[in-house]
Specification:
Dna Ligase, domain 1; D-amino Acid Aminotransferase, Chain A, domain 1; Glucose Oxidase, domain 1; 8-stranded mixed β-sheet; 8-stranded parallel barrel; elongated; binds adenosine-5'-diphosphate; binds magnesium ion
Length: 898
Amino acid sequence: MPAETMTKTRWVYAFGGGRADGDASMKNLLGGKGANLAEMSSLGLPVPPGFTITTEACVHYYGNEKRYPAELEGEVATALKIVEQQTGKTFGDPANPLLVSVRSGARASMPGMMDTVLNLGLNDQTVEGLAKLAGDRRFAFDSYRRFIQMYSNVVLDLDHHMFEEILDEHKERLDVTVDTALSADDWEAVVRDYKKAVEGELGQAFPQDPQAQLWGAVSAVFASWMNDRAKFYRRMHDIPESWGTAVNVQSMVFGNMGETSATGVAFTRNPSTGENRLYGEFLINAQGEDVVAGIRTPQALTKIAREEMGEKNPSMEEALPDVFVQFKAVVEKLETHYRDMQDIEFTVEKGRLYMLQTRNGKRTAKAALKVAVDLASEGLITREEAVMRVEPSSLDQLLHPTIDPASNREVIATGLPASPGAATGKIVFTAADAELQGGSVGAVILVREETSPEDIRGMDAARGIVTARGGMTSHAAVVARGMGRPCVSGAGEIHIDAKTGEMRARGRTFKAGDIITIDGSTGEVLTGDVKMIEPELSGDFATLMEWADGVRRLKVRANAETAVDATTARQFGAEGIGLCRTEHMFFDPTRIQAVREMILADDEAGRRTALAKILPMQRDDFVELFGIMEGLPVTIRLLDPPLHEFLPHTEEDIASVAAASGLDPEKLKRRVEDLHEVNPMLGLRGCRLGVSFPEIYEMQVRAIIEAACEVATAGRPAPIPEIMHPLVAKGEEMKFLRILTDRVARQVIAEKGREIEYLVGTMVELPRACMRAGDLAENAEFFSFGTNDLTQTTFGISRDDSGRFLNAYIDKGIFEKDPFVSLDQEGVGDLIRVAAERGRAVRPDVKLGICGEHGGDPASIAFCESVGLDYVSCSAYRVPIARLAAAQAAIGEREKDR
Ligand code: ADP
Ligand code: MG
Ligand code: MG
């Protein structure tokens, strides 16, 4: 193709002045922030003009040894010219300086993970110009000191504590406590010391050239894409590294120009509860990050919110009534335009409103449900869209316990209900301690003055988070909501003494390690362990689930073997049991004795005698399960684990089991040795047990069919048991097992004189079974993909040992996700596809399901829908997640066909 007609890659997109090069649909290229700034500009909203350097430029940068595309410099210069024209100011002009912010913005929002620099373009000359223009020297130097600190921190990589110490020294010298008490001269002195400190650290002066500042900041934003915080956040939220971040360069507006200036954040609805009411915080005479950083306690936006909080300081509605009216109209317009709850950043400069950001607001699961159901009821979105709006895995938050209202609450402090749910744990005061003592090690509550992005791993390891300072949009609150951790923020009554490792509240002292409970739904912090109750599954939850069930094609079953699990599963809407593991029933202390007798028996006759004792117990288990499931399908897997799992292993255990049961210890020991296998996972287990000792499976089949007869005879809905043979690899195995099963089943049916419908099938968990699925289907009426073992046998990786190396694989990008959590759709998925195809070719109505851990993973469920499986089966608590994910998958498949 001739060079002239080839479209050149464009690296820079402008916005502002009522128009924009981009729009909201261009998130991949412009990042979320850039795309929405463009969209807001086109909507005619007051957006300070600026431009976006694309994510492609970032990708190019990392793909070319950190070099910018050749055309970038020119495109930036052109875009900057346009901003200069629109603002009537010039970048670097000492008389009339244009200042800009340099802001990161990836496709997916990563709050607080990336760095932003404000007031860029200030230097020793332009600060004077700014002072003159504004007629306010104090403001100019306040802005300059903020710039030096931010730039030094973000771009020059200097520690922010250095600057805080300098500021504290000045305050001490001046005998003042708040920043607002510093005069123009004071700030000028602070700036002087800041610059000295930077020079001392770097051996060169703070950069004075605005162009150098600009490019320094751009490269710092690109670099922040690869910092540890960003990497950790990406891994937690499944954001690929390959996306890159965009950079937004935007002309500054100033919320720190006095009493008619302000900065704030707003949600169009309450992000914690979903209530349809403007919600947010603002600060008068402040800049950007002051609100989220929790430096001063922010004020409410609306009068009613202020009154409810019992606050004295005026709300925005009261302090800046004219701007508030305009703001409210803009906010409503944005919600209607985006048809979703918006999270908005704004600044007021001398009574003029500017919009700095909008995005679909992050919300708790509870709020997500309410907002989705409300928006559909308001007619802004359809019911199917509502179903698509709720992240299935977030439902997990709602399925968690809350504090029993009837329990005794001994409140030691109250703060803001920043993220719902309740949690109990030991107090820790540092993120490092939370990482050490929390996670899988124990339950801890992280108590901090406030949190910062460095604390993110500790927050993840804690069951709950408490902060003494900060509002509902503080770092702690936003991150906790995203993680689904309960959080109480701004509990000002708590005083933390880092030196002694204690906290005081309401006259009491607590040490690290003391137990507290937090209620993120009320904002209360309580002493000790408090009684919790199970979640309520009505209201918006029930409504949305009903809508989801209306569009879902996949059935959802549960993996359950106990009455408790089966009952929970039905409460959560399970449509059957997809996996009942019979060995779990064998471990019961009342039966293990008979099981061991069976294993120790010298011959078949001995085994049959022991099995006869187990039979009635197994039958009772199934009677109970069938009763609870009321005619819904129940898949029962015959004995699967190697027999040695039922025997004691250590010398001591053998002795005590022998003593307790009257079994001969020598014989027990010998049998344990006999059964020893080098690699039990690939040994005498699964249907190999049934082939080697048919009497075991015969007993189980008899127990199942007898139980079915008993239930049917009692006049209850007749169950349709699905008898499942594990670990089958060959057609001949399946044939042998099918004959065995039918023979026993017919015999029982003849004895009882009652016709019982049942299915015989197999758990597909070996690659050979997938490849030869046609052979299996000759005798199997259903396949249930056991994807835990299928993943192990496909990769040749033992799940229990994978912890030692999987992280290295994920770090190096060889695995994107843990294949035991989310199905490997390429490899394991291909095997499933082949098995489904070949199975159906032989038996068109072969029933297909999945029963591994993946049955509750939304991405894996979408895969199951695409292959056309009949059902997924997962743990009881994940059933609602699977129902919603299956509905979304069905809608997704339909969209694909369009
Ligand atoms: P984050 O993604 O962490 O929210 P932002 O880029 O949105 O970072 O910016 C941080 C803060 O600075 C926000 O409060 C934002 O409103 C403010 N800010 C950013 N750009 C400007 C600007 N051009 N003028 C005034 N304030 C700004
Ligand atoms: Mg922002
Ligand atoms: Mg298995």
